[in-house]
Amino acid sequence: LVDMCFAFLICASYMVISPLILIPGIIYFGTALVIYTYQFTYMHAHKYETGGNIWLRLFQCSIVSVCSSHVALAAVFVAQGSPKLAFLLVPLAIGTYAYGQLLISRHHSPNQDMPIAAAIRVDHTCAALEETLSQKTPFDAEMYVHPVVQTPLPSRQHSRATDRPPPA
């Protein structure tokens, strides 16, 4: 995650100075997409899920990268002799950071993060409950019928009509 955020920071910072940096950036992120998709699909077996915590961290890294690119661009404007443009970018960096913090505080509550010990405890409780229920009531195939199967389709109505014995 850190190397991808660093590559994003480099691409976002230097694309204003030299737009040709986007070509290696596109190649890097396209290759990373293929490799990480393969790895996450076929190779990694997670012991537990984070409940979407990676997106919060990725969003935070993206906000910091965008703010850093604003500051780097302001430094380039100062070096080129136009400090007025640099001063215009400072509120943009502050506003971007503030908006990112607003979104994080609005869409992420502290109770979303569950410690692994609590998740294991919940799993053991659910397993004990399932075991208790399986001992009390035997499995019946008719206990649950999927809603799609419950509603008769025209082709099913025809086959059901021929499968039934005629009324007496």
Automatic annotation (TrEMBL):
Could you name the domain of life of the organism this protein comes from? Answer: Eukaryota
What the entry lists under InterPro entries is as follows: Csc1-like, CSC1/OSCA1-like_7TM
> A GO CC term?
plasma membrane
Annotated TM spans? 6-38, 58-79, 85-104
Q: Name one Pfam family in it.
A: RSN1_7TM
Q: Which GO terms describe its molecular function?
A: calcium-activated cation channel activity
Sorted UniProt keywords? Membrane, Transmembrane, Transmembrane helix
| CSC1/OSCA1-like 7TM region domain ranges (all copies) | 4-77
Name of the protein described by the UniProt record? CSC1/OSCA1-like 7TM region domain-containing protein
Organism from which the protein derives: Perkinsus olseni
